[in-house]
Amino acid sequence: MDTEYILELEGVTKEFPGVKALDNIHLKVRKGTVHALMGENGAGKSTLMKIIFGIYTPDRGVIRFKGNPIKLHGSKDAIRLGISMIHQELSPVPHMTVAENIFLGRESTKGFGWINRKKMDQEAGEWLQSLNINIDPRTKMIDLSIANMQMVEIATAVSHHADLLIMDEPTSAITDKEVERLFAIIDSLKKKGVTIIYISHKMDEIFKISDDITVFRDGQCIGTKAAADLTQDTLIQMMVGREIKQVFHKEPADIGEVALSVRNLTRNGKFRDVSFEVRKGEILGIAGLMGSGRTEIIESIFGIVPADAGEIYIKGRKVTIKSPQDAIRYKMGLLTEDRKITGAFLPLSVKDNMIISSIDDFTVKGYIKGKLANDMCRAFVERLNIKTPSLNQTMLNLSGGNQQKVLLGRWLMNNPDILILDEPTRGIDVGAKAEIHKLMSRLAQTGKAIIMISSELPEVLGMSDRILVMHEGVPKGELEREKASQERLMELAYS
Amino acid sequence: MSINPNESVAVSPSIPHHRKITFSHLMNKYGMLFVLIAMVILMSFLSDAFLATQNLINIVRQISFVGIIAMGVTMVIITTGIDLSSGSVVALVSVVAASLAHPGEYPLIIPIAAGLCIGICTGFINGFITAKGKIPAFIATLGMMTAARGLALLYSGGRPIGNLNESFLVLGKGTILGIPFPIVMFILIGIISHLLLSKTKFGKYTYAIGGNEQAAKIAGINVDRYRIMIYAYAGLLTAIAGMMLTARISSGQPSLGLMYELDAIAAAVIGGTSLNGGIGTIPGTIIGALIIGVLNNGLDLLGVSSYWQQILKGAIIAAAVLLDSRKNKRA
């Protein structure tokens, strides 16, 4: 059966606990085209790609590849059928050669498992040549630039005789010149009849190379249009296109003196010339795409990775912050982006997780006053409405929302003046989310300066007094609460 | 509204306390204690000599040296580290302390201070290389294991150092209220280490570093400094054990403490310390040490060959780790 479409999705749905990641997706990809997927972080693009590549299985729905319904059990199945994926994060085996990486797991042998290196080098060379990639197959991966590693990955995918190639933000780590090379390769792949699904946040790229564009939002497929029929504005319209349904509990607070100000803060390769200030009682939102330098900025302010240049002032006084200890001494608190990796002590109790940053307050001559600590924790458990059977419960057994509240409790116990919240409500349920928003609003009213990073536009717009928008490491502008809109924000973030 | 909860919120015991006590819960928490009790009961049936007071004292005294070392090793393992140097440090401490403990030369304080100093210094170096050099603890302490043994042999010329002061020998042979001095120290250091680990800032930080090093840094803990202190404490305990052992056998020996590091790690692991870090207790390690002690002694009494004893010990260590990994998977 021959069809115009290489890939057809009908009603594909995928749920994770508490979230509908993909809701009844219908998508058709024409053979031999470059098909771009766009949408905010968390819109469901990556989940969908993982389904097409066989990493996730959909809860419902049909996937047709070349007209035949397929069921994938792992990426091996996908590769066998002719579907390959270039991941955003490359994962080469660094100390093996290009040829060895290309043929990893399917090496040519002379028998008895003896590798036929000559043949592998030769074949790898041919594949690279066919894509006009000028890399010696005997080079070690570790000696290649990121862009060249990516080229090798593309060659690997092609060498699997892929008919459908998924590229997840392939240009996020390479230079403009290398992007040109990548596009040339995409062109030559197209001529060979390979279909490409291209995920990117960069508008100019999308318009340059894609034939069709599909927009995702909140796990739904909003629509597919020919690139020629779209303009930047109409595309943004499609991506935003929603009213803010949620109600945010932001109440007005008295905005006082400047609590923290940052001048020309620069970290090489991450962000540059970032200046902003945040006042007592104010919630400053930092928006921008992933990789725009949002998290890196606050890492530097908090001393996790100090900045290379620039100044930080706290209450008008210039300070040097070389470690989180310094930051804490200046009365800052940081709720990190990834609770499990940089926040929680999962094997430890709720109590220990809470008191760890303010342990000196409970300690007399190195000895922790158990009752004092217990009383304090119990009060915070109650105040933050943390659901835990006891203070001695292991952190691991709490839900995400409750873990987040425990970590928030940790910093509140320290009574900080400046509270930095990186994705404070990511991956937690609606109820806990509203509670955290309410708490933020109340904290601002007590005169705390709050910096909030969020990938969720409604949250940024709903909670912030002012929004700083970042784009590829450079601040693109600040929006006052009254003047901020989703369209305006998107324009700045994507420009 | 103030954020100080004591003003705005009445402190009440409103947290529900209904925790179900299940068999698996009990096994997780007290499993190894049950194993120890079962072993004692079994042995008392199998051998008349086992329950004799003197035999029980022997068991505890024998295990007290490794037991003391194991307490420091427990803390190191909680931070996801390891200490392979304990046995060699025992030897180095032994020959140096012995050489300063000949009758009529120096007051007792000198060999003791020298021994403790060596323990702390070697521990400090282990910690420093691990924390600041970012070298895996396995490699850093493997280096110390080799170097300290070499130093001990060099210092002693490969020969035992005898003729020790009577007052020094008390460390290994003396008794307090009829209880051998090593056992008294075992109990005392057990209590101190337990309080240190469960009730102090030092202890909380130890668990935090092992539970999630990255989070510990962001929470404001000087991870490197505490890591070094933990290794130094482990070295200190090793030195105490080394000197008592030297006194017990009345001579400084460059070959002393061979394989002690492995017995200490075994005691910690059998006692529930997780090699993944963040989990472990001193009472657990003491139970682990006692299990090894009862096993050795019991098998001796039953006339089982020492070859078999090693095989059994190995099997028990593997079983304990298996239990630990299953426990973590379930959680």
The largest pleated sheet of chain B is described as: 2 strands, antiparallel
Cα-atom Rg of chain A, whole angstroms?
25 Å
Overall shape of chain B: it is: globular
Fraction in helix of chain B: over 70%
Average pLDDT score of chain A: 89
Q: Number of helical runs of chain B?
A: 14
Largest interface: A-B, 51 and 43 residues
List the helices and strands and how they pair.
The complex is a heterodimer of chains A (495) and B (331).
Chain A: E1 5-16, E2 19-30, E3 34-38, H1 45-52, E4 60-65, E5 68-70, H2 75-81, E6 83-86, H3 98-102, H4 117-130, H5 146-159, E7 164-168, H6 176-191, E8 195-199, H7 203-209, E9 212-217, E10 220-226, H8 232-240, E11 258-267, E12 271-279, E13 283-287, H9 294-301, E14 309-314, E15 317-319, H10 324-329, E16 332-335, H11 339-343, H12 350-355, E17 363-364, E18 367-368, H13 370-383, H14 400-413, E19 418-422, H15 430-445, E20 449-453, H16 457-463, E21 466-471, E22 474-480, H17 486-494
Chain B: H1 5-8, H2 23-46, H3 53-78, H4 86-99, H5 109-131, H6 137-156, H7 166-173, E1 175-176, E2 179-180, H8 181-199, H9 201-211, H10 213-218, H11 223-248, H12 260-270, H13 282-301, H14 306-330
Antiparallel strand pairs in B: 1-2
Helix pairs in contact in B: 2-13, 3-8, 3-9, 3-11, 3-12, 3-13, 4-5, 4-6, 4-11, 5-6, 5-11, 7-11, 8-9, 9-11, 12-13, 12-14
Which key terms come to mind for this protein?
heterodimer, A: alpha/beta, Rossmann fold, 2 domains, six-stranded mixed beta sheet, 26% strand, B: mainly alpha, two-stranded antiparallel sheet, 14 helices, 2 strands
Descriptive notes:
The complex is a heterodimer of chains A (about 500) and B (about 325). With about 500 residues, chain A is of the alpha/beta class. Chain A folds into 2 domains: about 5-240, P-loop containing nucleotide triphosphate hydrolases (Rossmann fold), CATH 3.40.50.300; about 260-495, Rossmann fold. Helices cover about 35% and strands about 25% of the residues of chain A. Chain A has helices spanning about 45-50, 75-80, 100, 115-130, 145-160, 175-190, 205-210, 230-240, 295-300, 325-330, 340-345, 350-355, 370-385, 400-415, 430-445, 455-465, 485-495; strands spanning about 5-15, 20-30, 35-40, 60-65, 70, 85, 165-170, 195-200, 210-215, 220-225, 260-265, 270-280, 285, 310-315, 315-320, 330-335, 365, 365-370, 420, 450-455, 465-470, 475-480. In chain A, the strands form 5 sheets. A 6-stranded mixed beta sheet of chain A has the order 6-7-8-3-9-10, sandwiched between helices. Chain A has a 6-stranded mixed beta sheet with strand order 16-19-20-13-21-22, sandwiched between helices. Chain A has a 4-stranded antiparallel beta sheet with strand order 2-1-4-5, with helices on one face. In chain A, helix 6 (about 175-190) links the parallel strand 7 (about 165-170) and strand 8. In chain A, helix 13 (about 370-385) packs across helix 14. The longest helix of chain A has 16 residues, at about 175-190. Chain B is an all-alpha fold. Chain B has a domain at about 65-260. Chain B is built from 14 helices and 2 strands, in the order αααααααββααααααα. Chain B has helices at about 5-10, 25-45, 55-80, 85-100, 110-130, 135-155, 165-175, 180-200, 200-210, 215-220, 225-250, 260-270, 280-300, 305-330; strands at about 175, 180. Chain B starts with a helix and ends with a helix. Mean pLDDT of chain B is about 90; it is low at about 1-20. Chains A and B meet through helix 10, helix 11, strand 18, helix 13 and helix 15 of A and helix 1, helix 9 and helix 10 of B.
